[in-house]
Amino acid sequence: MLQLRILVTGATGQLGTALLNQLKGSDYKVKITSRRKPEETGHFEWVYSDLLSFEGIEEAVNEVDVIIHAATSPIKNSKNVEVSGFEEFLRKIQHIKHFIYPSIVGIDEIPFNYYKLKYEAEGLLKNSSIPYTIVRATQFHHFVENLFLSKPFFKRYIVPGNIKCQSVDVSEFASHLIGLVDKGPQGRANDFGGPDIMTLKEMAELKIKVNNETNKILNISLPGKLYRSFLDGKNTNTIQKAGKITFEEYLSNKIE
């Protein structure tokens, strides 16, 4: 049986890094690509590529069977990277046997620009001739913590505390993506959600408890449809609690 050749894009991001850690010692031949070279590439072949300029793309995708597309840009140049750059990228990978696209739960219902772009990218992939698997995950533990609970302000976590989250461990999602490689193209696969649905206030309380902090919580409300969509749990999937590592375990592991 021929050895499958996998390309991981976005190798320096949180998901890309988790994928590389999971792929060490695997039977796959792995190539990685990103704009910045990872500090540790292990035995993987690294190729420079840029979804904005398209420099290095053809070399990166050459002689690979499967792509796990972890490259993303939620803050800068999002439209170019997620849609126009992605569309051009798809044109260059017509030979690919399986394209695995990590996406986000609720992007078709949450009025956030980055999510709208991810949803548009899903459509581009669906309408292409490339065999694919799209799998949406809930927010990662580290993302929720960094966005809402990274630094207290005057000894208070100021959070829209009633917002619901179903955060999941990035390493578990990386392992799930790798498990899809041998299954072949699935189309739209089941979502991959975290084990618990909690409010941000409850997550802040957990962080205070686990870290033995003296901080308090200031719960605020926000106007608008975006806030309402998170209040309504559009970023969660109650029947797809696939992850096992809880937010509390994630926080405890950081201390060890």
What does this structure look like?
With 256 residues, the protein is of the alpha/beta class. The protein contains 9 helices and 11 strands. The chain has helices spanning 14-23, 57-61, 78-91, 113-126, 141-148, 170-181, 200-210, 225-231, 247-255; strands at residues 5-9, 29-34, 45-48, 66-69, 98-104, 132-137, 156-159, 164-165, 187-188, 198-199, 216-219. The protein has a 7-stranded parallel β-sheet, sandwiched between helices. Strand 1, helix 1 (14-23) and strand 2 (29-34) form a beta-alpha-beta unit. Helix 1 packs across helix 6 (170-181), helix 3 (78-91) packs parallel to helix 4 (113-126) and helix 7 (200-210) packs parallel to helix 9 (247-255). The longest helix has 14 residues, at 78-91.
What are the main properties of this structure?
two-stranded parallel sheet, 9 helices, seven-stranded parallel sheet, 256 residues, alpha/beta, 35% helix, globular
Q: Could you estimate the helical fraction of the residues in percent? A: 25-40%
Distance between the termini: 42 Å
Mean pLDDT: 94
Main pleated-sheet profile: 7 strands, parallel
User: What percent strand?
Assistant: 15-25%
| Major sheet: arrangement of strands | 3-2-1-4-5-6-9
Helix- and strand-based class? alpha/beta
Order of helices and strands: EHEEHEHEHEHEEHEEHEHH
Tell me the quaternary state.
single chain
- The Cα radius of gyration reads 19 Å
**Poorly predicted ranges:** none
Number of strands: 11
Number of helices: 9
The shape is: globular
